[in-house]
Amino acid sequence: MSTHHSDPDIEQAWTDARAALANMLRPWVIDHKVDEIAKAYVDGLELRGWRPPLGQPHDVIAAARARRQQETP
User: Fold this and answer.
1) What range defines the domain where residue 44 resides?
2) Does residue 3 lie in a domain region?
3) Number of structural domains found in the chain
4) pTM
């Protein structure tokens, strides 16, 4: 049960997440079930509010993360 997004970048990020998970599962899961399992898992993440990363973080966010890492002992 996937939510369809009006933003094509978000929709593509979900598609990429499903494909990446399917590729990781492929060596251990029967071929005809790989895509079904990957879709179910990623859809479950989506329903719980997780969002896939969309490209590189903005400079402000990257700077804040770097500063926080330097402050952490």
Assistant:
1) 8-71
2) no
3) 1
4) 0.60
- Radius of gyration for the chain, computed over Cα atoms and rounded to the nearest angstrom: 16
Question: Which residues neighbour 1 within 8 Å (Cβ) at sequence distance 6 or greater?
Answer: 43, 47
In a domain, 13, yes or no: yes
pLDDT score for 1: 46
**Model confidence pLDDT, tens digit, residues 12-55:** 888 998 999 999 999 999 999 999 999 999 888 888 777 776 66
Compute the distance between CA of residue 24 and CA of residue 14 in angstroms, rounded to an integer: 15
Of residues 8, 17, 10, 9, the one with CA closest to residue 38: 17
Quick one: how many helices (H) and strands (E) in the chain? 3, 0
